[in-house]
Design brief:
By secondary structure, chain A is of the alpha/beta class. Helix content of chain A is 44%, strand content 13%. Chain A contains 8 helices and 5 strands; from the N terminus they run αβαβααβαβααβα. At the A-B interface, helix 1, helix 2, strand 2, helix 3 and helix 4 of A face helix 1, helix 2, strand 2, helix 3 and helix 4 of B.
C-alpha cells in the first residue's frame, strides 16, 4: 500500500478486516482439519459428523471433499501424480482462504503424498491439524461403497491408492482415528477433543 | 448415497449442514458480489469498504482479490486469454464454495470477458450479483497506483486490459458504480442498498 498515497482519486481505508476480527466475531479460532486416508476409510463421513457437532455449537465450518471440489474447482484434474499434486495444492490454498475468513475448514481427500500434505501444512502453519483416518485396507476394500476397489483389482481403475498407487502414512499427525474399530461418533468426539485441547473451541 | 447402505462398517448420517442452515445461523443470505472493471478502477478498495460495513453489521464475508488469489491458488496462471479464463473459472468456483458455506463472497478481479463472468454467474445462479465498477480509462490511467498503465503504454506489460487487451463491459449488471465520480463511501452505500433490496441483509 506504500505507493497508494500517490493516488488522488481513491480514499485509502484502514486495514481490511483480519482473521482475528473474524475469529472474535465467531467465538472460535479458524483452522484446517486435514483428513487423510485411503478411499472408503470414512473421511467425508467423519468430516460431516464433526461439522454437525460444530454447527450445533454455533461454529462456522466448511467441508471440502470430492463432492464439491472434484466436480467443480478441480474438474480439470485427473489422478496422475502431477494432477494429484495440483489437486492437493489447490485444496490447501482454498482451505487457507477459509481460515483467513475465520472458518474451520475441513478437507476430506485421500491426499496420499506426504510432501503434498506438508505443503498444505506450510501454508496454514499452526492452524493446520492433520487427522489420519486410519483403516485397514481390507476393511476399506470390503466396504467399497462405490465398487472402486473391485474395479481397481480388475485393472479397470489405474493408479488407485492402496492397490496400484502408494499411500504415504502421516509420520506425525495431530490425531489418528481408526474407523475400522471406532464408530463415527467416537472418531468425531476425538476430533472435537483435539479442537478443545488446541484452544480452537471452548 | 444410495449405494452406501451396502456398507456394514460405517454409520451413515443425516444430510450434511446445508447452505440454508448456515444462512439461518448467520442472519443473512449468502451471495457472490462480483466486482468487475478496469485495473485501478477501485474494485478491491470498494470490496474492502463493503466488507467493513458488513462486518459492522455482523455479517460473514470473504474478499477474493489479487492479493490472496494471484499469489496463491492461481499463482500458476498468467495473463493469456486461456489463463485469464481459467483464473476466472477457479475464482467462480471458490466464490461458490463460500456461498455454500453461508458467506457473502466478494470477488475483485478485472474479469474482462463477458463469457467468463457469465460462467461464474451460472454457477451461483440467483446468488450472483454483478457490480460494474465503472471508471473512465483516463482516470484509471492517471491513478495508476502500481505504474502498470505506464509500463503497458511503453509496451513492457503485454495484454494489459484497456490498452492492449479488451474489456467487455457488463450488459446487464445488477449494479453500476462510477468511482470516477463517487467517493468510496458512496459506492459502498450503493452496494449495501443492493443487498437490502435483494433481501440478502435486513
Amino acid at each position: 500500500m506504500a505507493d497508494a498515497v500517490k493516488s488522488t482519486n481513491i480514499t485509502w481505508h484502514e486495514a481490511p478486516i483480519t482473521k482475528e476480527d473474524r475469529e472474535r466475531m465467531n467465538g472460535h479460532k479458524a483452522v484446517v482439519l486435514w483428513f487423510t486416508g485411503l478411499s472408503a476409510c470414512g473421511k467425508s463421513t467423519l468430516a460431516h459428523a464433526v461439522e454437525k457437532a460444530l454447527y450445533d455449537r454455533g461454529c462456522r465450518t466448511a467441508v471440502l471433499d470430492g463432492d464439491n471440489i472434484r466436480h467443480g474447482l478441480n474438474k480439470n484434474l485427473g489422478f496422475s501424480p502431477q494432477d494429484r499434486e495440483e489437486n492437493i495444492r489447490r485444496i490447501g490454498e482454498v482451505a487457507n482462504l477459509f481460515v483467513q475468513a475465520g472458518v474451520i475448514a475441513m478437507t476430506a481427500f485421500i491426499s496420499p503424498y506426504r510432501a503434498d500434505r506438508d505443503k498444505a501444512r506450510s501454508l496454514a502453519g499452526d492452524a493446520f491439524l492433520e487427522v489420519y483416518v486410519k483403516c485397514d485396507l481390507d476393511i476399506c476394500e470390503q466396504r467399497d461403497p462405490k465398487g472402486l476397489y473391485k474395479k481397481a483389482r480388475a485393472g479397470l481403475v489405474p493408479e488407485f491408492t492402496g492397490i496400484s498407487a502408494p499411500y504415504e502414512e502421516p509420520l506425525n499427525p495431530e490425531l489418528v482415528v481408526d474407523t475400522g474399530k471406532e464408530t463415527v461418533e467416537e472418531s468425531a468426539q476425538k476430533v472435537i477433543e483435539l479442537l478443545k485441547q488446541r484452544g480452537v473451541i471452548v
